[in-house]
Amino acid sequence: MLQAIGLTSHPRRDLPPAVDDLTFDAAPGQITALLGPPDAGKTTALRLMLELDQGRGITYFRGLPLHRIARPAAEVGTLLGDVPGNPARTVRGQLRMLCAATGVPASRADELLEAVDLVSLADERLGMLSRAMDRRLGLAVALLADPQTLVLDEPAEGLSARDSGWLFGLLRDHAAQGGTVLYTTSDPKAAARTADHVVTIEAGRLVADQEGAEFARTRLRPRVAVRTPHTARLAGLLGREAREGHRSVEVVTEGGSRLSVYGSSCAEIGEAAFRHGVLIHQLADETGDMGPGVETVAPASGVSGSEPVESEPDGRRPLHPEALGPDGSFGDTSDPGPFDSEVPAADAPVLAARSVLPEFDSLIEVRSELSEQQPVITPIPLRGPVRPLRYELRRLFGVRTALLVVSVVLAVSVALSVLLARTGGTPLSHLLMAWPGPLPLPPAAFAAGLLGALAFGDEFRYPALAVGRGGAPRRFGLLVAKLAVSGGTALLLALLTAAADGGTLRLVYGGDLAGIPANWLSLAVGWVGLTVGCAWAGLLGAGVFKSTTAGLAAVLSVPVAVVPLVRAVLAAPAARSVAGLPARLREVAGVWPGKADRWLVGVLRLLSQPVGAALVLSLAALLCAFLFTGLRGRARW
Questions:
Q1: HEC assignment per residue over 584-630
Q2: Over the range 109-122, which residues count as b (16 or more CB within 10 Å of their CB) and which as e?
Q3: Which helix (H) or strand (E) element contains residue 348?
Q4: Over pLDDT 70: what percentage of the chain?
Q5: Mean pLDDT calculated for residue range 180-207
Q6: Residue in 72, 110, 74 with CA at minimum distance from that of residue 90
Q7: pLDDT of residue 339
Q8: End-to-end Cα distance, the chain
Q9: What are the residue ranges of helices labelled H in 106-159?
Q10: 293 and 208 in contact (C-beta within 8 Å)?
């Protein structure tokens, strides 16, 4: 059972709220349609229910609000707009990545591909999917954790009749198994055809809450659509013949050359037009929309079209019992009374209630006070993946970006090392790193920073962890997984680059040039620390500023801005020295291994280098900024 109580959005500036005190239920085993014209507040209502927007009210999913549910994906499946994801990722890769995020087995992806009939497109890229296939993938994502409730925003928009029928057939199967289905639509005919329960809203307020059969009976009426250049003449003829035959026929001028005739048939209208020589361009049976929340009463006698009837903005005028005369016919249309066509349809029930209930105004005041006491909706913190390491590995290797970057960097590094060795004067350590003096960073370190920046930047650009819930969440488990995977990737890239450069130099210039230096261990540690540090700097920079470009800027700022600052500090005269630090640390620790002095001195020597110190300072600052922004955003660590 889904229960939405008092949903009210925050008004913007001087505008009224998009959703105002909206309350309705969606029962299990049924399909509920949230019906309303465009800009009626349907999408805002769904976002308030899912606690994505700020406002007032509360929504219970089987008795619990969403922020009290441990695994929201297992309770509510959502489809809001298009399916977000990297366009280069395959359909199967997207589902398997989200399987790791929601904590379900990877085999669930193949099951859903069969359920939504996407097996033949499993290896297709997301960017190549049609609208219909994107809808199928969206349903698969919503059903990934087998939720009890489905919340869908305009799921059939832009689909053909065949695809729309398939979609609602799948929703019907989910409801038949005891699930709850809520979807939005602006088409009353589709709502009457597919929904068991229809909730109608207009301007963010509840207008009608009806069962499907009652909605079809009160909202939709069969009519004949007529197009003729002689609308006034034909309307008068039909109205006169209806009065003479004591038949209930209503003729409404829709504007231009169109008439809508209720209570007649194509044959009767065609014969009448033929007898009087009226030219007809179109005769078609249709189902007319009588407007939101209007109880229609058919008139007992004909209405002449020679006297144009005031109509709603869509060309229709709602009929009410008060508009009929004692004999069942229309009275004086010059005085439409309390149901004037200029009164908005949403206010008609309010006027009717005031006419029969003197205490109505006081009830409205009480209801307003109660709505102000509704709980405040605060957007729930974004949850990270249930299996962060598996999710991160599938995110990284699900697209060809990492393989392409590694291939390009290896080729560039080999070419640069050969050229640097040919010109001479370059140390062996820089040859193995392919680091020319003018470049701020070697290609491999810059590539590691790029892959690190993409780890968060792609998620903010193509959100994937929680569909319709914004960008990447900032959880400690996800951060550790990203640091581990990006660090491992950078380490592998550093080793491959050094091996490729050394092997190429040995092949081209012989073994003397590419020999193993005496201080190879410290050089290897420094090289690995540089690449891993650049990867982490790009990762944290993209996480703080939510952009891949910002992550790359954080990587380049280390050699461009921070290194000169550190060199200036180190070059300044010092009154005291840190000599003897290992011995003093041994005294503090009590027991100190014999070879630890050499390792500690090596680490301190690396940190004393301008690049190492600048990288450590940059990483510390970025990590503090990341934690600060995460705590400020009330992320759950």
A1: HHHHHHCCCCCCHHHHHHHHHHHHHCHHHHHHHHHHHHHHHHHHHHH
A2: bbbbbeebebeebe
A3: helix 348-356
A4: 77
A5: 94
A6: 110
A7: 32
A8: 31
A9: 107-115, 131-142
A10: yes
- For residue 471, the SS3 value is coil
Amino acid at 361: D
For residue 228, give the amino acid letter: T
* Three-state secondary structure call for residue 164: helix
User: CB 513: neighbour CB atoms within 10 A?
Assistant: 13
Write the CA distances from 516 to 496, 499, 502, integer angstroms: 16, 12, 9
For the record, the structure tokens of 176 come out as: 């038949």
Q: What is the DSSP string of 170-201?
A: HHHHHHHTT-EEEEEES-HHHHHHH-SEEEEE
Would you tell me how many other CB atoms lie within 10 Å of the CB of residue 285? 10
Beta strands 250-255 and 197-202 are: unpaired
Give residue 589's identity as a one-letter amino acid code.
A
pTM of this prediction? 0.76
Residues paired with 225 in a beta bridge? 260, 284
CA distances from 382 to 213, 468, 527, 571, 615 (A): 40, 11, 36, 46, 30
How far is the C-alpha of 626 from the C-alpha of 542, rounded, in Å?
Answer: 10
What is each CA distance from 149 to 3, 8, 183, 409, 501, in whole angstroms? 12, 22, 11, 48, 56
Q: 22 has which bridge partners?
A: 7
Residue 597 reports pLDDT greater than 60: no
User: Whose structure tokens read 């581990």?
Assistant: 484
Instruction: Give the Cα-Cα-Cα angle 312, 304, 269 (nearest 5 degrees).
Output: 100
Examine the pLDDT at 595 and tell me if it is beyond 80. Answer: no
pLDDT tens by residue, 321-372: 333 333 333 333 333 333 333 334 444 444 444 444 444 444 444 444 544 5
Query: If DSSP codes are grouped into helix, strand and coil, which group holds residue 358?
Result: coil
Half-sphere exposure of 617 (CA within 13 A, CB side): 19
Coil vs helix vs strand at 237: helix
Contact 83, 137 (CB under 8 A): yes
Instruction: Using pLDDT thresholds of 50, 70 and 90, give the confidence band for residue 600.
Output: low
By C-alpha distance, which of 493, 504, 578 is closest to 534? 493
* Total length of the chain: 637
Q: Angle, nearest 10°, between helix axes 360-372 and 348-356?
A: 130
